[in-house]
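Input structure tokens:
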């Protein structure tokens, strides 16, 4: 039975230091990976260029960190094991501008209270090293060691067996430890890091540039399927890689986000990430990213979580908008054949090497005056750049809206294939033929391009509708003969009530009788669609959600539905000029690599892949 609190207890006692540290350890030392993270952060803060990590039994029996950092003086070893002792901050101003990974001064004391801890260290230039055990009354002892520090933690929770029972299996704990090493290795590609477990070497990472380190940890496949992100505005910048939407996976395990070199799980950035991908992901897929956000430390509070995995931004909205627009512009980049999805390696047994991406900006914080855009407010330049881009897109869309769907939207020389395809051909090349009325086969300088014509045209219409809708400039096309269809009383009432809103969407729908409606005009962009099907779907959406939701919260869903019904249908035969016109429009359209439902619109087979299919050169 649970004991009752006695309000008459007279004594208030100060807790023993050991118990205080053990309570703090409950927040800081959740599992071996928590200890490993804290010790690695100390090594990086010490200026190490090489770090070795040795684990036994998932880190429960042993964690040994060896680094070549600045080291600790003999007379400061004991102080390093004291609670709230640190060399990284001394004043409140230091805390508000903290640039180091660790700063609380609790980690070593907390670990020493729940495990057997020892530190061996030698300052650069010192005669020899000193070792101190984390035991009460212990004194430093001389020991042989090169410059740097070795921290050993043995037998985690040996003195608190109840906590030890909550640990998982050895393989699970090791997996968490390995993930902690990988995360920190991503932030510092200039530092050599090795990891071994139970005497077996798992990996040895040499110093490298940022893309190479990302490929070493996340795989060449991730880098080859990703788009480089590089944006800056005043005191904030974003660099890294974001997966192509067609390569997104089923879980969030591949999302690595760092703020000033610190791995975080931040709701603001997470929401901006989801919003940027919302228009291009298929089903419930999740994007994989490796992003490094740098921001003036004065605009960031990192002291909100014991494990420092959460942060608080002074202007969270500006950060959200900056990240959202930076990712959205990256995903909206014109078609690039090098970033195209390719057929599975099972089809092409000898796939081409990974794409050589340009290196993004440095992944660590840079003072504001070094950024390329000197804007006072975080995110202001991003807003300006995005607005200018939107204006350019709107101008090109307005000029193209009056054309029939498949007339060339670009100069003739881009639609007329030369005698032989050269390296100067458009990214999607020139049409060769149509396959089963569904796919367009095209040839470019690299090989063969296959396009799903309905999915591609759907994205083109969708982007044009979004731009026209935002500018309130959706042009209408009058029909010579109204498209008449049967309707019930609620359908007719909805049309009569929201007639003006329908006109803004480019539709003119009028009652023609007690049970009939007629479509007299529809958006010019959708003139090749079925007027009756478009009207029925629009009225159904109108009745279910109301006009206010349709033009605000469900605006994209509505326009996507309209584009789907207005896009060229499968089995429609296209001429070669029409196919080339569609390819050129794809190259000029944002997010043309995915349809409105997130499915890929095109894929590519290089000549090397085609050669391997036919065993040429083997």
């Amino acid at each position: 039975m649970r004991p009752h609190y006695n309000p008459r207890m007279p004594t208030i006692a100060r807790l023993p230091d050991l118990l205080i540290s053990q309570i703090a350890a409950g927040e800081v030392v959740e599992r071996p990976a928590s200890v490993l993270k804290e010790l690695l952060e100390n090594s990086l803060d010490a200026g190490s260029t090489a770090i070795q990590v040795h684990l036994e039994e998932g880190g429960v029996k042993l964690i040994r960190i060896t680094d070549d950092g600045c080291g600790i003086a003999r007379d400061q070893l004991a102080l390093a094991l004291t609670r709230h002792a640190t060399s990284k901050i001394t004043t409140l101003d230091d805390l508000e501008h903290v640039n180091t990974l660790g700063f609380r001064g609790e980690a070593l004391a907390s670990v020493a209270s729940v495990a057997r801890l020892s530190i061996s260290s030698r300052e650069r230039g010192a005669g020899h090293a000193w070792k101190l055990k984390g035991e009460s009354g212990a004194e430093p002892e001389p020991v042989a060691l090169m410059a740097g520090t070795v921290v050993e933690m043995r037998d985690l929770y040996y003195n608190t067996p109840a906590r030890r029972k909550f640990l998982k299996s050895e393989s699970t704990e090791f997996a968490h430890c390995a993930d902690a090493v990988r995360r920190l290795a991503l932030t510092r590609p200039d530092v050599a890091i090795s990891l071994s477990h139970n005497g077996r070497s798992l990996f040895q990472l040499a110093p490298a540039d940022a893309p190479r380190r990302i490929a070493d940890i996340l795989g060449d496949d991730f880098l080859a399927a990703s788009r480089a992100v590089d944006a800056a505005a005043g005191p904030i910048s974003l660099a890294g890689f974001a997966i192509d939407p067609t390569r997104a996976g089923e879980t969030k395990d591949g999302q690595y986000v760092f703020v000033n070199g610190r791995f975080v799980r931040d709701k603001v950035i997470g929401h901006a990430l989801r919003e940027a991908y919302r228009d291009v992901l298929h089903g419930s897929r999740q994007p994989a990213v490796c992003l490094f956000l740098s921001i003036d430390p004065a605009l960031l509070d990192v002291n909100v979580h014991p494990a420092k995995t959460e942060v608080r931004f002074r202007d969270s909205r500006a950060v959200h908008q900056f990240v959202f627009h930076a990712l959205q512009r990256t995903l909206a980049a014109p078609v690039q054949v090098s970033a195209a999805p390719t057929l599975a390696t099972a089809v092409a047994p000898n796939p081409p090497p990974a794409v050589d991406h340009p290196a993004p900006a440095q992944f660590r914080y840079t003072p504001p005056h070094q950024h390329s855009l000197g804007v006072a407010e975080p995110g202001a330049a991003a807003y300006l750049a995005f607005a200018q881009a939107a204006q350019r897109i709107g101008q090109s869309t307005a000029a193209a809206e009056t054309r029939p769907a498949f007339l060339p939207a670009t100069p003739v020389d881009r639609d007329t294939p030369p005698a032989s395809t050269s390296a100067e051909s458009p990214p999607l090349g020139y049409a060769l033929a149509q396959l089963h009325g569904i796919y367009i086969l095209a040839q470019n300088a690299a090989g063969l391009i296959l396009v799903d014509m309905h999915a591609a045209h759907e994205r083109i219409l969708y982007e044009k509708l979004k731009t026209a809708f935002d500018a309130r400039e959706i042009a209408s096309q009058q029909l010579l003969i109204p498209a008449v269809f049967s309707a019930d009383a609620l359908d007719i009432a909805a049309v009569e009530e929201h007639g003006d809103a329908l006109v803004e969407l480019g539709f003119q729908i009028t009652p023609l009788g007690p049970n009939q409606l007629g479509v007299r005009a529809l958006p010019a962009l959708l003139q090749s669609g079925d007027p009756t099907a478009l009207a029925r779907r629009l009225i159904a959406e109108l009745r279910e959600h109301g006009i206010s939701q349709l033009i605000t919260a469900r605006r994209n869903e509505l326009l996507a539905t309209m584009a789907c019904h207005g896009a060229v249908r499968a089995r429609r035969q296209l001429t070669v000029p029409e196919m080339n016109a569609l390819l050129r429009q794809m190259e000029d359209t944002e997010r043309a690599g995915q349809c409105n439902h997130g499915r890929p619109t095109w894929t590519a087979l290089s000549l090397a892949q085609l050669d391997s299919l036919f065993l040429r050169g083997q």
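The chain has 19 helices and 22 strands. The chain has three domains: 17-200, 211-391, 412-604.
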